[in-house]
Amino acid sequence: MGTDGTLAERERLPDPAPGMRLERWTYWSQGLKVKGYWCAPESDVPLPGLVYCRGGIRGVGMVRVARIATLAKRGYAVFAPFYRGNEGGEGREDFAGEDRHDLYNGIRLLRAMPETKPGAVPLIGFSRGAMMALLAAKECEGVGPVTVWGGVSDLLLTYEERVDLRRMLKRVVGHPRKDPDQYWARSPACWADRIESPVLIVHGSVDEHVGVEHAYRLARALEAANKPYRLDIYHSRAHVFPREEDDSVLDSIFAWIGQTSGN
Q1: 197 catalytic residue (yes or no)
Q2: For this UniProt entry, which segments traverse the membrane (predicted)?
Q3: Cα 13 to chain center, whole Å?
């Protein structure tokens, strides 16, 4: 058994674009071998690191190579954990429970790699990945500015809004009346005072999967805790933005990351 946050295997995959390198990493997390994609431009010098926290659960919302390549082309070495139990990884995903350690150990791994420039690592969390990213900002060292895009900030609100997810939530997290502490632990709006990174909140005003109220609750909680944040609401936009607008939103996110982290 390897040490948490250390590499067990790195596998070269076909380049996603000219000048871009893609690998699948297998690494150790709580005694499990878990996996993720690493992507970076070919470079003779270390690049700033960035971690992308996927949304969904299991086969829904899996990491897409095209997505992390889009992030990496901006000059970053990007790592995107699959979370345990996915794509051949050991263990079983539990929706921002113990699987949060797969993110923490992925951050440690990325920061320790020679391809990564020293310093704190920014995180981008999409949808459920927002819970993961903000848990890391609360509990993990070496976390830089955090962007949450269409992010869950109150899992009880998700239970109320998403009738289609209730069966999964009761099975994986517990019943909200019987296990309220499990919902609280996964709800960044409940512990915003413990978030130790600047936060950029990006949300579509007509998000059909994670209602925009999640963004407002997180913003209010950060404001009350006197934590640095920015709230960007995109009107008439849903959970997934139109492709033609996606790049401009990412430009805005990376400009904020650069201003906030000094990269």
Answers
A1: no
A2: none
A3: 22
Contact criterion met (CB below 8 Å) for 161 and 211 = yes
Q: Which two tokens stand for residue 130?
A: 């927002």
In order of their start, the domains of the chain are 39-261 (3.40.50.1820)
Predicted confidence (pLDDT) at residue 263 exceeds the cutoff of 80: no
pTM score, whole prediction: 0.98
- From the list 175, 239, 252, 261, the catalytic residue is 239
Residue 108: closest CA among 35, 183, 51:
51
3-class secondary-structure state, position 188:
helix
The β-bridge relationship of strands 77-81 and 121-126 is unpaired
Residues 47-92 have pLDDT tens digits of 999 999 999 999 889 999 999 999 999 999 999 999 999 999 999 9
Q: How many helices (H) and strands (E) does the chain have?
A: 8, 9
Contacts for 71 with CB less than 8 Å, ≥ 6 apart: 39, 50, 52, 78, 124, 250
Q: How many CA atoms lie within 13 A of 81 on its CB side?
A: 34
Pair 232, 200: CB distance under 8 Å: yes
10 Å Cβ neighbour count for 141? Answer: 11
Encode burial over 18-39: b for 16+ CB neighbours within 10 A, e otherwise: eebbbbbbbbbbeebbbbbbbb
Amino acid identity, residue 128?
R
Question: pLDDT of 226-261, one tens digit each?
Answer: 999 999 999 999 999 999 999 999 999 999 999 998
From the list 29, 101, 127, 153, the catalytic residue is 127
Assess whether 175 carries a catalytic annotation: no
* Residue 42 in tokens: 């070919």
User: Cα(140)–Cα(237) distance, rounded to whole angstroms?
Assistant: 32
pLDDT tens-place string over residues 103-144? 999 999 999 999 999 999 999 999 999 999 999 999 999 999
